[in-house]
Amino acid sequence: MITEILATGDEIRTGALVDTNSGYIAEKLEEAGIAVARHSCVGDDRDALISIFREMGGRADAVVATGGLGPTTDDLTAEAAAAAAGVDLEENARALAGVEAFFAARGRPVTASNRKQAFLPRGADMLDNPVGTAPGFAMQIGRCTFFFLPGVPPEMRRMLENHVLPRLRRLQGDVRQHCMVKTITTFGLTESVAGEKVAAVTREFPRVKLGLRARFPEIHVKLYLNGTDQPAMERLLDAAVSWTTAQLGKSVLSTEGASMPAVVGGLLRSQRATLAVAESCTGGRIANWLTDVSGSSDYFLLSAVTYANAMKTDLLGVSPRTLELHGAVHEETAREMAAGARRIAGADYAIATTGIAGPSGGSAEKPVGTVCIGLATPDKALGRRYCFPFNHRGMNKSMFAMTALNLLRRALTPEGN
Amino acid sequence: MITEILATGDEIRTGALVDTNSGYIAEKLEEAGIAVARHSCVGDDRDALISIFREMGGRADAVVATGGLGPTTDDLTAEAAAAAAGVDLEENARALAGVEAFFAARGRPVTASNRKQAFLPRGADMLDNPVGTAPGFAMQIGRCTFFFLPGVPPEMRRMLENHVLPRLRRLQGDVRQHCMVKTITTFGLTESVAGEKVAAVTREFPRVKLGLRARFPEIHVKLYLNGTDQPAMERLLDAAVSWTTAQLGKSVLSTEGASMPAVVGGLLRSQRATLAVAESCTGGRIANWLTDVSGSSDYFLLSAVTYANAMKTDLLGVSPRTLELHGAVHEETAREMAAGARRIAGADYAIATTGIAGPSGGSAEKPVGTVCIGLATPDKALGRRYCFPFNHRGMNKSMFAMTALNLLRRALTPEGN
Fold it and tell me: For a 10 Å CB count at each end of chain B, is N or C smaller?
């Protein structure tokens, strides 16, 4: 089966927006054992769309396309798909009902332009969009089945999972190949060092394929296996995961693909422990990550984002003398911030960050990338200093936040993993 | 001139790596007035490469291609380009000298696999790579001039600038087209309503092209103009921006492309005012956004992320009676949270959020998507309730955070914009 991916939209064509959808779709398809032959992108141009739909219709068996399903005049996908297939657009009853229900649930009238979204090529099979107004659709153009999805990532992702992957698996037919994948999440190694440590997995387990993914600042190590005998595959892949995990040592967060905030949350939950956070340079990023995990209210009590020094003293009880002697970015300040957050929240554990994310604020002694992390536990409170090489505010905030969570993770892990 | 971009490599094809090169190249080409017709990606496969080189050679005038120039066996670009053009590979003296100089400068011997990089299609024009071992090359396939560059971003960027852009400008000839773009950021309208309001801009200003971009929950309206006379274009685009802004009314955040946190930060800075935040359901997202803006420490003092109810009373001074009577998600709770944050931080303004981001925690009376926002100013403190239709934790957190910032923005805007 020849499968291709198409992104549409002037923003991607002109480089105003980096296309992350195509990579995401490719990864999900490859994980499902469906090889991707090619990606393409064209802009919001009727002729360019018709031309590429016809090309793909002549050479591919399946295409997953994103974008151009919105309600505005530069959303041309349905019109161009109809023209490429030589059919008319017609109001799709299920699509209209979906759009009407979306607006009715919100007590708002359906606009004329949203009604346009219910016009699909004749014969198209509407694909329900549970999180937005734009329905997708599947249809045949030439020899190829096209799946048209909205370009908004959360909508696209949900519809890919619900509608497209099951149908692609059916299209692929009786090739009963399974593709299994295990994801080992790590923090603390660079991509190249992690790669060197695990490269020999394909020699130890010749059927296993290895992939490294930088999800900054985590590195995810993926092991893929194709085959037909699921129980045997499971055993082989488990053995490969054990071997790989042993090479990676203490940098391993999870062998089930879990990211740091979920791993830390799981440790807190299983120990019935609670957490408070005091954030200066991370500016709420730790709290934002922790609360992206559903159910985090079970263990997360408070983050005091004390950007101003006065808040560090007044709210967290950091000693003015400490700030005067050492400044805001210091191990002792971080230690007192963590101890203060733990005390005011009545939490079992607390972490704290104070550092210089940049681009300004660095000095020779404390350059951009410097962070002090505090940790308070039922037994102790400590502060540590780190310096990272990034000259990028967002990367530093993420690296600082991850380092603080990692210090907590290791304190919560019995063997000090 | 028909110009296309091609990325090659299995990592991009399979989604292991997001292709940032193509977007970067597209942006640089469009800035130089060279319209990009299409992007494509194929993997490290000799037949797939030959096939797409021939296709492009038949339909495009220029192609900028990245990847596949490295020293390993899956680097097949030169071989496939030679096959597509019907010529042999031969050792290129300039390329070999470049590779040898690179290794000599580092005191390392040239390996056999690096020597392979000096073999280029006969007749190809070597493009010097000052930062890596892989030389690029330019050559004709069919009617089209191909520029082959390495996939490593810093190498590609330097060579695009040094070699490709000057040659593309010459190929394009004396049509010195510029492309100008203005971005109007908005919040509060759906994409479809915004689209209807501004659709007529292309009738009022026939040379202007319109694009709408959902950067959830902001909607960005983009106006594009191509031409040769920059001052005249500037005037025309300014008039189109004024017309469009008038249609969009109070939903306009910025006509310079600024996002909500930067706009709110700018207003606070210009009024020498300070801000405190109290976050429950947004879990630190407001603070994280505000502190992504460099220099935010000038006005942002504190966010108290009070996930636990006890923190709302102990830290922010919300009355236990209010929580008992109304619960955590209520206008009065939000109002008291904002007033408390303003008081403890000694800030001029404060905003607060308390709501139900989901997926759990909803009820008939307060469904998932309900949020109460508090605002405290030097004159007053108030609470407001909103209900959003999203059944997605991340989308709700973003919508709640944006709504709170928007309430503050309007309080800070003289005419209550």
Answer: C
